[in-house]
Amino acid sequence: MKTELFAIGDIHGQITLFKEMLTHWNEATQQLLLIGDLGDRGENPKACFILADELVNEKGAIWIKGNHEEMLLNFLEQPEKNIDLYIMNGGLKTLETLLHEGVEDEYSPTEMAMLIVGRYPTLKQRLTGLPLYYEWGNFIFVHAGVDLTKKNWKQTSPRDFVWIREPFHSIKNKTGKTIVFGHTITPSLYGDNQTSDLWIQDNKIGIDGGAVYGGSLLGVVFDKITMLKHYKLVNNG
Prior knowledge:
Elements: E1 4-8, H1 15-22, E2 30-34, H2 45-59, E3 62-63, H3 67-77, H4 79-88, H5 91-98, H6 103-106, H7 109-119, H8 123-129, E4 133-136, E5 139-142, H9 158-163, E6 178-181, H10 186-190, E7 199-201, E8 204-206, E9 216-222, E10 227-234
Parallel strand pairs: 1-2, 2-3, 5-6, 6-8
Antiparallel strand pairs: 1-9, 4-5, 7-8, 9-10
């Protein structure tokens, strides 16, 4: 029986920090949850996808859908339409680690998508099936946030679950639960572009420390009532 939950913020290809963070996870007592944005930019997106997939399949981990998972899925489904947005948001690093460096100059978007689907037959299925949120006791875990203008936060649009920033950060949280989210880096939430600690305000906890930008990868432990402790791994690379 898992009495605690261990949540990890946006990883964005930082496989070394990802593996280091997992050394703090107690598999026997803690449900593992990944808040989304495993790939794009960073050190090795492919390795992060493979490890996350193994954790879901073999360890029962929960992998929340982020906007970067959505962009990769959209690219795989309609490559010519979505290539520019995906590349603009760091997708080239993912394409190169899934295939090889220089792939953009060698293949069309359609050819790249076909190669990826052929080489990684379960990737698209995994991305399609990712949940938009997860409830645990007093907590809601979601990639970007929820629409706090709705009477029932579960009526948030699929797009807002993975993309919302404002007005989520500033509107009063009346859900009765604490919302744990990634997507917007905590240096931005703090407004100083440097503080990569947890951001805690109005029963909201931001856990994207901006690891890929030289910030921190954050890991947080909860029981069903409260936050118990957290880990901060600074990206010194």
